[in-house]
Amino acid sequence: MTENSKPGGYEGLKAVFFNGTLKPSPQLSNTDGLIRISRDIMEKQGVTTSLIRTVDHDIATGVYPDMREHGWKTDEWPELYPAVREADIVVVAGPIWLGDNSSQTKKLIERLYAHSGELTSKGQWAFYPKVGGCLITGNEDGIKHCAMNVLYSLQHIGFTIPPQADAGWIGAVGPGPSYLDEGSGGPESDFTNRNTTFMTWNLLHMAKLLRDAGGIPAYGNLPEEWKAGTRFDFDNPEYR
């Protein structure tokens, strides 16, 4: 196989896409249009994908796995989280509002954070075996700002972020057509299509690398071992 030939072996991987649009189904979501590009590429490689539009679900606000245990009467997040737990790839997608991520995207990040203290069977933080990416849409500036927030948050709670793990589309500044509107130029944007494709393949490559390697090595990152006194070559400084 040459360096630029198409690899294989992605079958069996699972990916979940979260759409942080503020529009409930069946309203048209421009973010869905960008998600579809990435999902199509993954599915052609035998990857199982799913899509969750968070606004369609009664997800409570908070930073605990089940907010019904913390004062909320209802919370669908415990029923949605298994899709994350079973996924190798998690893509957070959403629109720009006031130059920032939508409230739905922010709520999702908070609910993911709720599980960051859980451990895998290897004793690592829950998201260590998973790869994260980001897709952003809008008709105002802010793609890089929004992606920076999402990708930092994902890596901070344990996701692995491959190179160029974000893509997006924005129209002209101010009121104007959105991504899927006729004449927007969004679906024809070579820059957006290239970045979305590169992001998708980098997610696939990294997820396969982690799966084939059995995940990230556990030495040096086991919280319970640290708590028990193991210091993984860290030398306590002398205090004078």
TrEMBL record:
Residue ranges of every copy of the NADPH-dependent FMN reductase-like domain listed in the record: 14-164
One Pfam family this sequence matches: FMN_red
Protein known as: Multimeric flavodoxin WrbA
Organism: Paenarthrobacter histidinolovorans
